[in-house]
Structures are given as structure tokens and as C-alpha cells.
């Protein structure tokens, strides 16, 4: 193999599994260390810079970082990254004076944001401090988008959401709430310099063709609409017997909400096997904790009504079958199951809908009637119109919407400065030794043995009787410290300098996970087959040096490196060094300063 | 800020024939200098015992005093150990071996512990052909007392102090061959590919097995003028050949052309298959071994690998006609057969 190019910003970035998996590339280990040191406000601000809603995400994030976490590969469970983020939000001091200042003198550019969800708010956050005048439109009466309408208060208290939404709205954003934009043309006619569309995927799927759908309409609800009605207190109760159709996170929110506003016999009914439900495992766990049963392999057949009122549903039991390629098909068994109910909530998916966008204003629509949007610049075929969040490529999650918002803001800023939106700057990176002295590093290099700490929950009886009472209590400071110490500090990289190595083998001998090898070079498959310990996780790179004096090369399997620093500790010539790698996605207007911000 | 080895290991560590992973053969974290050759030798001993699938409690680690003699703390943490007096490891090992002949005895010593204060003990344990592996971690200096030249430092070699050593050096391999050892080898801490099969073969050899391992002292003796530095040894190392250790359980099936490849069956039925660097080498001849060693020495080079092997030498137990069982497995009656037996023994000497 060729020597690894560690100058490529993506090489070490990939070693920081959590940060790499995060759509917004939040520097996770860095903020976890700040939490361990009790610097909650600093940890919060580091998050805020990157993901804008630490308090919200610390409770509701889809956590792509956690399945990626290295600890999950060497230990039973990953670090509770998401809930540590919440710790930063819960224990921070007043940070208002640390928010960016908003210039009194504007730069003369006007931007319209359609939809007040996480994507639009991120664009606002990035552009307002640069002097842009921003106008925000949303059909709801308050900002937050789906974070407000879809996520129940027992998972995300309103105060937390309000606080983080207001940090942005207070940046001098002109808001037009309770204002449904029914024509993009009208907006474009107002001569904005750019328009950002972050309207989400607002249409919940229905079962229009199922028999009885019309007759039972009064008690059949589309999940996301129903959740919004509960959030805005238009709906205050539900029948005692509730069937929730669907196996995603919305279904989990629907059933748990039902249980809090009158539902007694609440059931989740899923077509697929339980193991293939789309909901996050922890949300399924929370649902089951509240004694809500999940019926798998039940395909809806019919809404059953009596005298024009819904009385139940018929389901046909199915069996999952898999073909040679592992593709699943659900085979009907012919067995019909009747379940009584007063209300049905359909949480079987969401779709995009752009009835308000005229098709003759230069915005091309492609497959599934989705706008054609560039995946890097988020620009549509109308140069002034940008899309982000669920509106761009279909339903994802909050953190993805934030990542889109940052990139769209970069594009808008470039365009408004007359620069090609494709001329984007590389991320700001920084690699600095962490050695302080003999056996002394700036980070806590020892690896703790603790298992993942469980977040304490509120009393079940109490929380089920109050829709607004938060179920999760969050870590206390001691738990937070101990959980933070489980982090392996993967951003502290093992950097190898070939010229300094005397091939004494000390690093090989000390490495607790047998990552390091000095062997004859070969191609990747050959090298992997000859390493000291199995190296079959090809998603993880091999770090290969240039030729050493003996003609061999150093090959390190990044897969299970604990970043404990023992190789550097035992290296007599500092050929190994532990160096902290910071990787900051370049934000709007920060191109030139990104490197500096990193060095801090 | 501390120096703590994590408890986490590679999740797919290979398992040996008796169900142990390499981690089961680990000891405490080394406190030697970073980059010390001794740590590599420790790792090689560990690896060899893992590969040989020896139960850790069937091994006894014996040592004297010195940097080298500290190392038994750093490997085989589940085995027996005795850190004895300076230069007196052979006596303690002899005693232990007499009491329990069923254990694998791995003696670890240094050039000071063996060639200076322990020279007499060393000479006699070789003569008695005690069934043990005797590993010398040879760095040519007294690392624990700030790097004075030791008795194995080559004449003219200079350590960190910069003064060339005026004295002739003791060659432990030649000494051992001369005194009748059955297994003599030399290796280098920086060459595990050679060292590990050597240790495995030495463990399987019955009788005294010496491996003199050049092990650079990074702190005091890894200088450009030292003949025991990493660079010097790498540049001047010549192996007698390479070999595969074939454990007893693996049936020997491959046939080799005679000449450069030679197969020697050890006492326990396992074998070593030698791929010799030269056809002229005769591992069964002390004279050939001495000649070869001296030949390379004259050129300023180090000859490594297996130097001499005679698998059929009788060990101490055989020489003394001792009991075939460990003493701890004998009953009181066997250990103390009574006055009548004593009387008959005494009378046999009259």
C-alpha cells in the first residue's frame, strides 16, 4: 500500500468515528472532555457552533454518532454521546453574552426563509451575524417547525426548545408567523437576494384506499397532524382504545402521547417484524417501558365501523420472507385479526409536498416530484432558491437539517458576494501534540472499564399523567463525569514519524489491542491477512508508513485503537506522538478564520 | 496523566489450543525504559508460551537481579515466579526443578547477572544440564547502575559515556557449548520472527537451553559506537538460517531436499526444520558451531540463530537418577520410607 496521506483532512477525520458519522461533524470528543472538566458552558458553545440546538438534540437526536462510536466496537455499548450533550445544555450558565453580535449596519442583502424549522433557523444563525437581513415565514404560531409540532413535550420540554429557537430569533430576524406561504412566486417577486426553503416533509401518509376509511374518518388521524394538534393544544384527549399504525419514531411518539391524554389500551401495530421497525431502539425501549404492546406482522385490512362510528380494525397476519439477496417480502397468511379501538393514528411515513411552488419559475422538479437540488451547494435550478432539511431530499432528521442549513448558508453567502457557490473552502483543521511531560498528556488517556450509564427516568405513574413532564431526567454531574470518561478520545491521533523510528518494537508490545505491526508491505488484502490481530473491518482504514530502515513498513489497524497513548508513551524516540486533531466544517463567512477558530 | 494499561483487548483475539488468548499470558505493565529490548523479549516469551499452549500455572519464571531480571513481572502473570539473589538464579532454579520436574522453567538473566557475578553459577548449571530455558537479555552494560560496560561488552565498543571498552568480552554461547549445553542459540530482541521459534524450540528441548539475546539498552548503550545498538546489530547480523518449529501434534508431511534443509526431532517428539544459510553448517558439532561463531566475529559480525543442538543429552534428573514424579505428588510414605530403608541405604555405603 502507498503511505497514508495524513495531510488529507478526511484521513484523521474518519478516525474520529462519531464526528465523521455526524452530519454536522460536531467535534464530539472535544466537548465530552469539556464536560468532564466541568466546563459545561464551553461544551455547550462548541456544540452550538456546530449543531445549533444542543439542548434539543441532547434529547431527541437520531444519534448517528452512537452506532459509529469506537467504544461500541471494543466494549458492549457506545458512549452516551447524545445524553452528554444534554448535560452541557442542562448545566451551562447564561451564555447569551457569548452569542455572536449582530451588526447594526446591515450588508444590504435580504434573505427569505420559508419554514421555521431547524434548517431555516440554522441558515438564519449563520447569516444574521454577517449582516444579512432575514425574513422568516412559517405557518405555525411559533418557530421550531417539526421540533415543536412533532416532538412531544415529555421528550422535549417547551422551555428548552423556546430557549434555543429564541437565541436565533433574537438575532434581529423578522418573523412572519401564522403566515402560510401559498406561492413561491409571490416571495420571489419581493426581490430577495436569496430564498431558502426549509419546509420539511409535511404530509403524513394516509390509507385512503382501505375500506372504511371514509366512514370512520372522525376517529382516524394522520399521526403528524395529530401530534401537531396536541402540541398546539387543539387536541386535548383521545379515546381509551387506540391503535397506532406504523413502526417509526412518529408511531412511538403517537402512542406515548395517547397514553398521556386518555388512551388506556394503546397498541402499536406494525406490518413488519419487530426487529425491522424503523424506530430507534431506545425509542422502542421507552415505549415498552410505558407498557405499550407492539404487534408485529399485522397488515391493515379494513377500518370497521358500526353506525358510522369506528369500532375497530381488521388486520391480516403476514410472514416475512427473504430472498437470496436478503430482500424482504411480507407474505399474507390469510389469518384475520380484529382489534377493537376508538381511535386510529396513522404514522406510516411522511412525504414532501410543494403545492405552493409554481412550476414555471425556473425550479426543476425531478423524480417523485422532488425539486432538483445540488447535494453540496443545496442550490436548486433557480440560482436564487436553495433547499435544505427534509424539503431537500426527503425525510431525515434534525441534525441532518442543521448540516444542510450550514451548507446552504455558505452557498448563499458566496453567491451574495459574487463568488461561485462551488468554490467552497476546505474544513479548518489543526493537529497538535498533547504531550505535557513524562507520562503526562493533556487528556485523560487511561481507559475506564465502566459500562454505559443509564439515564434516570421520572416516576412512570407521574409522567404518564402529565403530557408535559419530561420522562428522562438526564445525567447528574457524577454520572456525566463517569460517562464522559468512557470516551476514548479518538480525536487524539496516533501520529507516526517514519524517520524517527528505530524499530524497537516497544509500541507493538505495549499496544493493548494489537493494532500496530511492522511487516513487509503488500496490497491491502494481503496486509490485512498478515496483521497480528484480525483486521477484517474494512470500513476502518490501515495507517501505513513509508519504508523503514529494515525495508518494512508500520501498519496500524485503526479499527480498535483505544487512543490510550501507550505506543507514544513507550516510544523512545517520539516516532509516535499523540496529537489532537480538530476538524471544523467551514461555515458561512468564516472561511479565512476557520483555521484560527480551530487553534483555540 | 498516568501510565495505566487499559483492560480492553482486541475483541477477536485468537485462542490457542487450550482456550487461552494472548491476554491470559500477560503480566504487569513494564517499568523499564521506553524502547528497551528486554520488553520485546518479554513479549516473545509471552507469545511463545501462548503458541505452545502451555497452561500458565505449569510455568516457573526464575530470575536474578538487574533490568533483565525484573522482566518476569511483565509477562506470564499467572505463572510461578522467583526473583532470586544476584547471579544466583541457577541455584534456585536447580532447587525448584529438583522439587518439581513437571514445570517448564524459564530463567531470565542479564549479562551482569550471568557473565559477572553469576558466572560460576552459570558454568555449573550448564554442566549439570538442568532442564530449563536460560534466556540472557544481553545489552552489554549495567543499565540499572547507569550503564557501565559489562563482561559481554565487545572490546572497543563504546556506550553513552564514549570510552571504548578495553577488556575482552565473554561469549556466553561459546562458553555454553564448551560446557556441554545441548541447545545453544543467539538472537536479537528486534527480530521476533527469529526469536519466537527459538524460544519455542528451547522450551521443547529437554536439558539446558541457552538463548543469548542481544537486547539494546536504549538509555545507555544505543550509541553509534556500540556493538549492541539497534542499528549496529541490524547491520551486522547474519543468521545461521531460518527454521520452523513443528509441534508434536502436527504430523510432519512435507519432504525437503537434503542439503540446506535439515529436520531435527526433539526429545518430546516435536521437531525443528532448519533452512540453513550454508550447507557447511553442522548443528550437531560443537567444533563447527565454535568455528562459525569465531568466523563471523573476526569479520566484526554477529552470528544469530540456532548455533548448536544435541537433543539427546541427559538432563540433571537423569544424571542423578531422581524420582520421575514431582515431590509434591508423592505420598508421605514415599517421601519418608522409614528407618528400615534408611538403614539399608546406610549399609550400602559401608
UniProtKB/TrEMBL annotation, chain A:
Residues 492-521, 551-581 form the 4Fe-4S ferredoxin-type domain. GO terms for molecular function: dihydropyrimidine dehydrogenase (NAD+) activity; iron-sulfur cluster binding; metal ion binding. InterPro entries: 4Fe4S_Fe-S-bd, 4Fe4S_Fe_S_CS, DPD_II, FAD/NAD-bd_sf, FAD/NAD-binding_dom, Helical_ferredxn. PROSITE patterns: 4FE4S_FER_1, 4FE4S_FER_2. Pfam families: Fer4_20, Fer4_7, Pyr_redox_2. Its EC number is 1.3.1.1. This is dihydrouracil dehydrogenase (NAD(+)).
Automatic annotation (TrEMBL), chain B:
GO terms for biological process: cellular respiration; small molecule metabolic process. GO terms for molecular function: oxidoreductase activity, acting on the aldehyde or oxo group of donors, iron-sulfur protein as acceptor; thiamine pyrophosphate binding. Pfam families: TPP_enzyme_C (PF02775). This is 2-oxoglutarate ferredoxin oxidoreductase subunit beta. InterPro entries: 2-oxoacid:Fd_oxidoreductase, THDP-binding, TPP_enzyme_TPP-bd. Keywords: Oxidoreductase. It comes from Pleionea mediterranea. SUPFAM superfamilies: Thiamin diphosphate-binding fold (THDP-binding). Residues 65-213 form the Thiamine pyrophosphate enzyme TPP-binding domain.
Amino acid at each position: 500500500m502507498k503511505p497514508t496521506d495524513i495531510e488529507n483532512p478526511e484521513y484523521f477525520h474518519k478516525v474520529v468515528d462519531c464526528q465523521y458519522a455526524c452530519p454536522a461533524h460536531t467535534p464530539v470528543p472535544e466537548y465530552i472532555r469539556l464536560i468532564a472538566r466541568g466546563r459545561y458552558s464551553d461544551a455547550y458553545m462548541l456544540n452550538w457552533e456546530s449543531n445549533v440546538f444542543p439542548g434539543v438534540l441532547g434529547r431527541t437526536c437520531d444519534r448517528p454518532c452512537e452506532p459509529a462510536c469506537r467504544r461500541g466496537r471494543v466494549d458492549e455499548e457506545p458512549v452516551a454521546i447524545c445524553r452528554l450533550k444534554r448535560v452541557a445544555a442542562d448545566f451551562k450558565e447564561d451564555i447569551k453574552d457569548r452569542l455572536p453580535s449582530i451588526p447594526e449596519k446591515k450588508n444590504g442583502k435580504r434573505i427569505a426563509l420559508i419554514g421555521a424549522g431547524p434548517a431555516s433557523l440554522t441558515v438564519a444563525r449563520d447569516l444574521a451575524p454577517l449582516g444579512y437581513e432575514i425574513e422568516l415565514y412559517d405557518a405555525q404560531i411559533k418557530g421550531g417547525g417539526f421540533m415543536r409540532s412533532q416532538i412531544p413535550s415529555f421528550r422535549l420540554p417547551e422551555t428548552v426548545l423556546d430557549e434555543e429557537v429564541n437565541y436565533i430569533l433574537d438575532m434581529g430576524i423578522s418573523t412572519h408567523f401564522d403566515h402560510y406561504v401559498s406561492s413561491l412566486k409571490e416571495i420571489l417577486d419581493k426581490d430577495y437576494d436569496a430564498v431558502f426553503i426549509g419546509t420539511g416533509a409535511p404530509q403524513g401518509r394516509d390509507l385512503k384506499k382501505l375500506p372504511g376509511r371514509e366512514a370512520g374518518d372522525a376517529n382516524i388521524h394522520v399521526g403528524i397532524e395529530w401530534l401537531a394538534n396536541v402540541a398546539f393544544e387543539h387536541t386535548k384527549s383521545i379515546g381509551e382504545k387506540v391503535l397506532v399504525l406504523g413502526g417509526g419514531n412518529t408511531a412511538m411518539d403517537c402512542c406515548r402521547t395517547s397514553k398521556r391524554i386518555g388512551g388506556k389500551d394503546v397498541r402499536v401495530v406494525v406490518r413488519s417484524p419487530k426487529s425491522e421497525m424503523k424506530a430507534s431502539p431506545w425509542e422502542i425501549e421507552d415505549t415498552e417501558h410505558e407498557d405499550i404492546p407492539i404487534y408485529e406482522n399485522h397488515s391493515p385490512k379494513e377500518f370497521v365501523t358500526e353506525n358510522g362510528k369506528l369500532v375497530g380494525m381488521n388486520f391480516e397476519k403476514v410472514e416475512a420472507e427473504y430472498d437470496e439477496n436478503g430482500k424482504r417480502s411480507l407474505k399474507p397468511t390469510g389469518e384475520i385479526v380484529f382489534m377493537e379501538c376508538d381511535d386510529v393514528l396513522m404514522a406510516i411515513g411522511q412525504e414532501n409536498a410543494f403545492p405552493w411552488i409554481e412550476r414555471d419559475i425556473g425550479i426543476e422538479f425531478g423524480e417523485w416530484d422532488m425539486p432538483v437540488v445540488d447535494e453540496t451547494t443545496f442550490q436548486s435550478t433557480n440560482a436564487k432558491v436553495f433547499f435544505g432539511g427534509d424539503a431537500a431530499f426527503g425525510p431525515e432528521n434534525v441534525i441532518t437539517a442543521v448540516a444542510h442549513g450550514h451548507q446552504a448558508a455558505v452557498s448563499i453567502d458566496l453567491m451574495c458576494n459574487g463568488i461561485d457557490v462551488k468554490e467552497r473552502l476546505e474544513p479548518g483543521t489543526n493537529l497538535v501534540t498533547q504531550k505535557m511531560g513524562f507520562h503526562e498528556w493533556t487528556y485523560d488517556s487511561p481507559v475506564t472499564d465502566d459500562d454505559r450509564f443509564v439515564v434516570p427516568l421520572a416516576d412512570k405513574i407521574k409522567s404518564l399523567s402529565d403530557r408535559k413532564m419530561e420522562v428522562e431526567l438526564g445525567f447528574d454531574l457524577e454520572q456525566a463525569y463517569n460517562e464522559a470518561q468512557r470516551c476514548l478520545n479518538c480525536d487524539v491521533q496516533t501520529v507516526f514519524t517514519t524517520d524517527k523510528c528505530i524499530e524497537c518494537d516497544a509500541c507493538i508490545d505495549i499496544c493493548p489491542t494489537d493494532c500496530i505491526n511492522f511487516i513487509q508491505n503488500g496490497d491491502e488484502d494481503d496486509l490485512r491477512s498478515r496483521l497480528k490481530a484480525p483486521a477484517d473491518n474494512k470500513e476502518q482504514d490501515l495507517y501505513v508508513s513509508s519504508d523503514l530502515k529494515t525495508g518494512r513498513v508500520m501498519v496500524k489497524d485503526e479499527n480498535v485503537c483505544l487512543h490510550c497513548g501507550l505506543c507514544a508513551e513507550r516510544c523512545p524516540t517520539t516516532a509516535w506522538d499523540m496529537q489532537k486533531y480538530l476538524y471544523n466544517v467551514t461555515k458561512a463567512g468564516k472561511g479565512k478564520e476557520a483555521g484560527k477558530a480551530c487553534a483555540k | 496523566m498516568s501510565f495505566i494499561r487499559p483492560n480492553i483487548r482486541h475483541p477477536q483475539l485468537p485462542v490457542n489450543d487450550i482456550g487461552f488468548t494472548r491476554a491470559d499470558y500477560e503480566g504487569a505493565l513494564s517499568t523499564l525504559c521506553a524502547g528497551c529490548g528486554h520488553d520485546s523479549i518479554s513479549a516473545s516469551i509471552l507469545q511463545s508460551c501462548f503458541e505452545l499452549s502451555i497452561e500458565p500455572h505449569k510455568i516457573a519464571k526464575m530470575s536474578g537481579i538487574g533490568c533483565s531480571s525484573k522482566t518476569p513481572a511483565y509477562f506470564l502473570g499467572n505463572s510461578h515466579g522467583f526473583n532470586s539473589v544476584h547471579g544466583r538464579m541457577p541455584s534456585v532454579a536447580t532447587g525448584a526443578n529438583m522439587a518439581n520436574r513437571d514445570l517448564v522453567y524459564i530463567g531470565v538473566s542479564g549479562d551482569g547477572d550471568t557473565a559477572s557475578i553469576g558466572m560460576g553459577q552459570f558454568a555449573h548449571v550448564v554442566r549439570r544440564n538442568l532442564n530449563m530455558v536460560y534466556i540472557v537479555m544481553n545489552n552489554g552494560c549495567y543499565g540499572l547502575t547507569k550503564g557501565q560496560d559489562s563482561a559481554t561488552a565487545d572490546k572497543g565498543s563504546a556506550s553513552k559515556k564514549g570510552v571504548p571498552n578495553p577488556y575482552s568480552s565473554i561469549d556466553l554461547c561459546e562458553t555454553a557449548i564448551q560446557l556441554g549445553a545441548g541447545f545453544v542459540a543467539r538472537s536479537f530482541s528486534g527480530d521476533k520472527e527469529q526469536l519466537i521459534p527459538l524460544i519455542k524450540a528451547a522450551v521443547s528441548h529437554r536439558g539446558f537451553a541457552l538463548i543469548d539475546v542481544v537486547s539494546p539498552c536504549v538509555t545507555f548503550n544505543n550509541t553509534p559506537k556500540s556493538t549492541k545498538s539497534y542499528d549496529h546489530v541490524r547491520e551486522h547480523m547474519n543468521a545461521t538460517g531460518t527454521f520452523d518449529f513443528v509441534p508434536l501434534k502436527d504430523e510432519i508431511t512435507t519432504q525437503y531436499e537434503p542439503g540446506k534443509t535439515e529436520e531435527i526431532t526433539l526429545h518430546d517428539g516435536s521437531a525443528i526444520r532448519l533452512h540453513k544459510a550454508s550447507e557447511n553448517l553442522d548443528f550437531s558439532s560443537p567444533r563447527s558451531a565454535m568455528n562459525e561463531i569465531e568466523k563471523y566475529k573476526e569479520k566484526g559480525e554477529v552470528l544469530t540463530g540456532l548455533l548448536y543442538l544435541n537433543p539427546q543429552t541427559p538432563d540433571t534428573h537423569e544424571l542423578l537418577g531422581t524420582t520421575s514424579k514431582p515431590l509434591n505428588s508423592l505420598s508421605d510414605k514415599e517421601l519418608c520410607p522409614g528407618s528400615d530403608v534408611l538403614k539399608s541405604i546406610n549399609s550400602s555405603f559401608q
